[in-house]
Design goal:
The protein has 399 residues and is of the alpha+beta class. Strand 2 and strand 3 form a beta hairpin. It contains 18 helices and 13 strands. A six-stranded mixed β-sheet has the order 1-2-3-9-6-4. The protein is globular and about 60 Å long. The chain has one domain: Cytochrome P450 (Cytochrome p450), CATH 1.10.630.10. Helix 6 runs antiparallel to helix 8 and helix 9 crosses helix 11. Protoporphyrin IX containing FE binds next to helix 13, helix 14 and helix 18.
């Protein structure tokens, strides 16, 4: 590409991997967006895009901004990664296309319809347990409990040892950040967790009728190897538990802070789906991830050299006033079309329909029973390199 006139790069001392940023990223988002369409982050030597327009453009251009060098801060082609690369998240076409086709078919609308009745039944059981039960931890007792049951059952992983799923998600998503204290803490028990996950993805350890087993039908058809199938099953376990848990936690917090909007949902359960999209926009559980420039390129006139890492702040894009009216207002009545909470482009979340189904049935069951969600203690913010939610969320569900 020939670049005639290049802008002087805008640089910033903002550290998107600092505790202050994790506790309250929103003032930093404003600074990053206002600094320019693309900003050089001095501390880490990476570029960042935080405006909706550039986030969407980068996500839409996999040829220039690839995933195969890792979607974290490290260029895995040069430095290697801490695990075998994902067969979806960290692949480019044509490999990605073939793998994605397999997984998309397994997570088809028909497959999800078959799961709905079970999810609804489990949602009733959980809601029965928590409503009127006094002070609870909204994370462990509710937000985590649901995907850990219904999603893990749906994939068909062994019941014993499921407690490794959360530490695994922690490794995957904290592992996308720099080698900081959060990274080290997430990796503290890596050998044991990895061993369980690796075993759980094997054909013989999966239930015969789950989503995981369906991946192996492609082995029987001679399309992929058993090792490859295990890697695809692993992508369910990597991306499907923490993300949904944290989205549910964020939903509880949003509705506790905005009881008038919870009333709207209670009176019109049909609005739950739309409400979830607003939660994804307003408090995006997945905040940031990276791409790597495959060639010398430019963003809005700023030169981006080949191999540069580009941080994509989907959370900042979801509150960009250039795109959204009153972006800092939580409003379940607004149009959220185009939010990038599930990413966009060829890597846009392949599990988004199952995530939506889980949250929809759970919030619908809760809306039938809980008049109010009260925060009954000091929430403990999750400090995390990639995701945003709570470590602990003291709540009371009032009948
Ligand atoms: C609310 C919950 C969820 C959120 C916020 C979320 C968010 C995302 C985002 C932002 C991406 C794009 C990453 C990138 O472009 O580099 C993604 C990809 C992905 N997600 Fe989700 N996700 C959620 C739930 C799930 C679930 C339940 C599954 C289980 C099947 C899943 C599986 C995946 C996979 C396999 C990818 C990689 C897709 C690809 O590279 O083609 N996600 N997700």
């Amino acid at each position: 590409m020939i670049i005639d006139t290049l802008e002087k790069p805008t640089s910033s001392a903002i550290d998107p991997f600092s505790p202050d940023y994790f506790r309250d990223p929103y003032p930093f988002h404003v600074q990053l967006r206002d600094a320019g369409p693309v900003v050089w982050l001095e501390k880490w030597g990476v570029w960042a895009v935080a405006r909706f327009e550039q986030v969407q453009a980068v996500l839409g251009d996999w040829r220039t901004y690839c995933s195969s060098a890792g979607v974290g801060i490290v260029n895995e082609k040069k430095m290697g990664g801490w695990r075998k690369p994902s067969a979806l998240l960290e692949k480019d076409p044509p490999e990605h296309t073939a793998n994605r086709a397999i997984v998309s078919r397994i997570l088809s609308p028909a497959a999800l319809r078959a799961l709905r009745a079970t999810f609804e039944r489990e949602a009733e059981v959980l809601v029965d347990r928590v409503v009127g039960a006094g002070d609870l931890d909204g994370m462990a007792d509710f937000s985590e409990a649901f995907p850990m049951k219904v999603f893990a059952d749906a994939v068909g992983v062994p019941v014993e040892g499921r407690h490794h799923l959360v530490p695994w998600g922690n490794m995957v998503f904290n592992g996308m950040g720099p080698r900081n204290a959060l990274f080290d803490r997430a990796m503290a028990n890596a050998d044991e967790v990895t061993a369980w996950i690796t075993a759980a993805c094997k054909r013989e350890n999966l239930t015969p009728d789950g989503l995981g087993a369906q991946v192996y039908t492609h082995v029987e058809a001679g399309e992929i190897s058993a090792d490859h199938a295990a890697l695809l099953v692993r992508s369910f376990l990597s991306a499907g538990v923490d993300t949904t848990t944290f989205a549910i936690g964020n939903a509880l917090f949003c509705f506790a802070m905005h009881p008038e909007q919870w009333d709207v949902v209670r009176e019109n359960p049909g609005k739950v789906k739309q409400a979830f999209e607003e939660i994804m926009r307003f408090e995006s559980p997945f905040q940031t991830f990276f791409r790597t420039a495959t060639c010398d390129t430019e963003i809005a006139g700023t030169a981006i050299p080949q191999d540069s890492k580009v941080l994509i702040s989907v959370a900042a894009a979801n509150r960009d006033p250039r795109k959204w009216c009153n972006p800092d207002t939580f409003d379940i009545g607004r149009s959220t079309v185009g939010h990038v909470g599930f990413g966009a482009g060829i890597h846009g979340c392949v599990g988004q329909m199952i995530a939506r189904l889980e949250v929809e049935v759970l919030l619908t069951a809760l809306a039938k029973r809980a008049k109010r969600i009260e925060i009954c203690g000091e929430p403990e913010r999750l400090l995390h390199n990639t995701l945003r939610s709570f470590e602990k969320l003291p709540v009371r569900f009032h009948a």
